[in-house]
User: Which sequence fits this backbone?
């Protein structure tokens, strides 16, 4: 299985809602990532988990809360978002082994719209 | 920190013509470099990667890239464009001082005309 899956594919939420994005991989990767991508732009790194511990937080607002419950799952909890948070949210995973070059495998993304 | 620059935000090619997408990197150490493709409303798919094993790297879908240290370049080519190659292409480099951080270029939109 060389796939990263993400659910839901689409999400519409109001600014007072609480929702969660889910990501799953079964490739045995021990690093998992959340990216935000606006239209016509490259992905922007938000968070990195390595061995289920948060290793990088790119100064993301606290209304985004990541969680890595086990080595295969990654969640992104959303609360009190703003319309400018509307974007494609991508999950990725990779080996931690530097010798493998850090190749990241991406999921199809969740298209989030905040009203 | 390492970075990449993609020359040309849009490239238009005729079906059957050569595809050439340019990427230059800045790095004080041997870099790990990648080309990713993104089709509309999809995630990123790895086309190929350079990890110092060979300077000419062959990838999927007929793409290849050549690492040229003297020119700090990693340009992507495909001899004959197909309509299905229409997509956004990103060059990326791994940050060696902060493992796990991929630095992406701005992207190049490829349009293929019949």
Assistant:
């Amino acid at each position: 299985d060389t796939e990263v899956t993400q659910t839901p594919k689409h999400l519409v939420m109001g600014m007072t809602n609480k929702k969660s994005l889910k990501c799953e991989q079964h490739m045995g990767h021990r690093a998992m990532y959340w990216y935000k991508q606006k239209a016509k732009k490259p992905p922007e790194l938000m968070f990195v988990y390595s061995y289920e511990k948060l290793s990088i937080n790119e100064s993301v607002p606290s209304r985004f809360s990541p969680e890595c419950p086990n080595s295969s799952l990654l969640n992104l909890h959303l609360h009190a978002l703003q319309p400018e948070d509307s974007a494609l949210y991508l999950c990725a995973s990779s080996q931690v082994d530097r010798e493998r070059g850090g190749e990241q495998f991406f999921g199809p993304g969740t298209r989030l719209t905040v009203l | 920190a390492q970075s990449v620059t993609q020359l040309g935000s849009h490239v238009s090619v005729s079906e059957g013509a050569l595809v050439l997408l340019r990427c230059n990197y800045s790095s004080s150490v041997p870099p790990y470099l990648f080309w990713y493709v993104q089709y509309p409303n999809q995630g990123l798919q790895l086309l190929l990667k350079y990890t110092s094993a060979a300077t000419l790297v062959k990838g999927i879908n007929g793409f290849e890239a050549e690492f040229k240290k003297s020119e700090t370049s990693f340009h992507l080519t495909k001899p004959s464009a197909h309509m299905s190659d229409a997509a956004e292409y990103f060059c990326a480099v791994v940050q060696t001082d902060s493992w796990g951080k991929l630095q992406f270029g701005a992207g190049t939109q490829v349009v293929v005309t019949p």
Chain A has a mean pLDDT of 93. The longest strand of chain A covers residues 18-25.
